[in-house]
Specification:
Mean pLDDT: 88
Number of helices: 3
Radius of gyration: 17 Å
Helix content: 55-70%
Distance between the termini: 11 Å
Number of strands: 0
Low-confidence stretches: none
Shape: elongated
Oligomer: single chain
Order of helices and strands: HHH
């Protein structure tokens, strides 16, 4: 897709989705920091484990398949 000009629009879409993924990751990190400051190690809403759950979520890639393809280039 990245190397074939016929798929240029798809490559652009993939890059835009990776921009969104980076923004989501930054938001997750900021949210984790805010929760740390405000709530500390208290349980999260809905019965989640709080910071532990947020850390795991913050570490997960958004669109991992796109990152894999991008990293192989």
């Amino acid at each position: 897709m990245y190397s074939d000009p016929a798929y240029g629009e798809l490559a652009l879409l993939a890059e835009l989705l990776l921009d969104v993924a980076e923004r989501v990751t930054r938001w997750r990190q900021r949210h984790l920091s805010a929760v740390k400051r405000c709530m500390g190690a208290k349980p999260g809403t809905g019965g989640s484990s709080g910071l532990t759950w947020l850390r795991k979520a913050a570490d997960q890639d958004v669109f991992p398949e796109l990152w894999t393809v991008r990293n192989e280039l």
